UniProtKB/TrEMBL annotation:
Family assignment from sequence similarity: Belongs to the sodium:solute symporter (SSF) (TC 2.A.21) family.
NCBIfam families membership: sss (TIGR00813)
Short name of any one Pfam family annotated for the protein: SSF
Signal sequence residues: none
CDD domains on file: SLC5sbd_u2
Keyword Cell membrane: no
Protein keywords: Membrane, Transmembrane, Transmembrane helix
Protein's name in the database: Na+/galactose cotransporter
Length: 565
């Protein structure tokens, strides 16, 4: 059964709060209805007709990631691990986002593909394509369950409905606007949701800091001690006692394999940039998204740290003494809202949380329906059907995915800290894909057989490491390896990457490569450099230049890393 939430705390909203929430839902569904008028082809439904400006796709790019994990998961990490959680943003996100904009988006956008698995098919053939499309689809259904579970939790805390009822109601709201307007509805709502989320969490952060005595108050009162205020070596976060190995786990496991695997090959994010109106806009989208990404930790992680000090349930949970009231680290933000926000502000904060969870789930579902319709159904089941047929398939896939997500929410309910679960999934699905992708993009000799065998081997390696670790799969593991929590996820991702690379190299040496002429636009060394940039990019002002914006972003994130080391 889903973990019951009926006997835990409630959010004491009043009529004014409910009115704010109801208006927000009305606007969300209204955007879906308006976007429906723009859908005249499958390209409109799945990729917004490639017609959106960079600032829209850039904000949607970051908002699609600003879901349950970002809000609840990172605040839970902040409460449990402290400043080390900043690594997920400044080591584990921004550098990869800049790399995506500068190096990889020209291949995605310039090749005209409709999805990341379609790029894999052109580079490696149907074997790697089918493995990637299936693994991606499964991952999105599982991750959508995380967002849906937390969305339902908010409804449960607010109205006291049974959790299963809350799941169904929450799913129906997201389903309505994606089914109506496709990716355009999701993107326009994600832009709105970005501003709602920031407007909701900023006052909560300010009030929490005031309550605890500012940053100095956190430094004086944080438990268990100074290690919570230092980002390196992050031994609490990784669960690896050796400082050197912990640092390697963060830099290689999180900063390279998981980060680059997620941001550069995950179609949930890439799909937003691919909806841009030009190559230059597509390159700028993830770079524009990197700037707010740098500062989101201040309204997500710091409130979690404050909650561990001023919220009795979280403080007792962390110390292992006293009554936690059934609360988990995932409840840190909700408990802050309960104790610190007056009515009115509470309604805005609840709307912000609902916005974040809907943004995350909508991103998962809209990416799933595109891959299912184009890469699975059209490629392997029904080819050469009229365009409208695939739009219809996409809408049916949207409904089916939402129903399945209600089931996968069960898995999410078994984790006290959802980041453990999510990082495990990324190790399974994103890490091996990144290894195959990056090797195939820069090594023209790599063969089609190596593509799919590397993917399968890398995934198997990640599953093996996770199974042998202590706390993977919600505690149901053998504990052969002395790794726990997110450290196990970093190790699994590293194993997936290394095994994928080794298997790919070995298999390539034993199989026949493709004709280099077939790989133009798919391999870096075989692609004319002029096709990797927009023809008009040289005349753009500095604030529209992808390379200059990326340079500014890189300098800023280095400064932030130094300030909070």
């Amino acid at each position: 059964m889903l973990r019951a939430a009926d006997d835990t705390f409630r959010l004491n909203a009043d009529f004014f709060d409910y009115t704010i929430i109801a208006l927000y839902f009305a606007v969300v569904i209204g955007i879906g209805v308006l976007a429906r008028r723009q859908v005249s082809s499958s390209l409109d439904f799945f990729l917004s007709g490639r017609s959106l400006p960079a600032w829209v796709t850039g904000l949607a790019f970051i908002s699609a990631n600003l879901g349950a994990v970002e809000i609840m998961g990172m605040s839970a990490n902040g409460a449990e691990f402290g400043v080390a959680t900043f690594h997920y943003f400044w080591i584990g996100a921004v550098p990869a986002m800049l790399f995506l904009g500068i190096v990889m988006m020209p291949f995605y956008y310039g090749s005209g593909v409709r999805s990341v698995p379609e790029f894999m098919r052109r580079r490696f053939g149907t074997g790697a394509h089918l493995v990637n499309a299936l693994s991606f689809s499964i991952a999105q259904l599982l991750i959508a369950g995380i967002n849906l579970y937390l969305l339902a939790t908010i409804v449960n805390r607010l109205l006291g409905w049974p959790l299963w009822v809350s799941l169904i109601v929450a799913a129906l709201v997201v389903l309505s606007y994606i089914t109506l307007g496709g990716l355009s509805a999701a993107i326009y709502n994600e832009v709105l949701q970005f501003f709602v989320i920031v407007a909701a969490l900023t006052p909560l952060t300010i009030i929490a800091l005031h309550k605890v005595g500012g940053w100095q108050g956190i430094k004086d009162k944080v438990q268990p001690g100074p290690e919570q205020l230092s980002s390196w070596p992050g031994t609490d976060l990784t669960g690896i006692d050796n400082p050197l190995l912990s640092t390697i786990g963060i830099v290689f496991g999180l900063g390279f394999v998981l980060s680059f695997g997620y941001w550069t090959t995950n179609f949930v994010e890439v799909q937003r940039a691919m909806a841009s109106d030009s190559l230059s806009s597509a390159r700028r989208a993830p770079i524009i998204g990197a700037f707010p990404k740098m500062f989101i930790p201040f309204i997500v992680i710091i409130p979690g740290m404050a909650a561990a000090i001023i919220i009795p349930e979280i403080s007792n949970l962390k110390s292992g003494q006293g009554d936690s009231g059934g609360a988990t680290y995932n409840d840190a933000i909700l408990l802050l809202m309960r104790d610190l926000l007056p009515n009115g502000m509470l309604g805005i904060a609840i709307a912000g949380l609902l916005a974040s969870f809907m943004a995350g789930m909508a991103a998962n579902i809209s990416a799933f329906n595109t891959v299912f319709s184009y890469d699975l159904w059209q490629q392997y089941v029904q080819k050469d059907k009229p365009d409208g047929y695939y739009t219809g398939v996409g809408r049916i896939a949207t409904v089916a995915a939402t129903v399945i997500a209600i089931g996968t929410a069960y898995f999410a309910s078994n984790y006290d800290n959802l980041m453990n679960y999510l990082q495990t999934l990324f190790g399974f699905f994103n890490a091996p894909l990144f290894a195959t992708f990056i090797l195939g993009m820069f090594w023209k000799r790599m063969t089609a057989t190596a593509g799919w065998t590397g993917l399968v081997s890398g995934t198997a390696a990640a599953v093996a490491v996770a199974f042998l670790s202590e706390d993977a799969f919600g505690g149901a593991s053998t504990g052969v390896l002395s790794l726990s929590g997110q450290g196990a996820s970093f190790a699994a991702a590293g194993a997936a990457f290394v095994v994928d690379i080794v298997v790919s190299v070995v298999v390539t040496s034993m199989t026949k490569p493709r004709d280099p002429k077939e790989l133009e636009g798919l391999v870096y060394s075989l692609t004319p450099k002029e096709s990797l940039v927009d023809p008009d990019e040289g005349s753009l002002p500095w604030y529209q230049s992808p390379t200059k914006l990326a340079g500014i972003g890189l300098v800023l994130v280095i400064i932030l890393n130094l300030l909070f080391r």
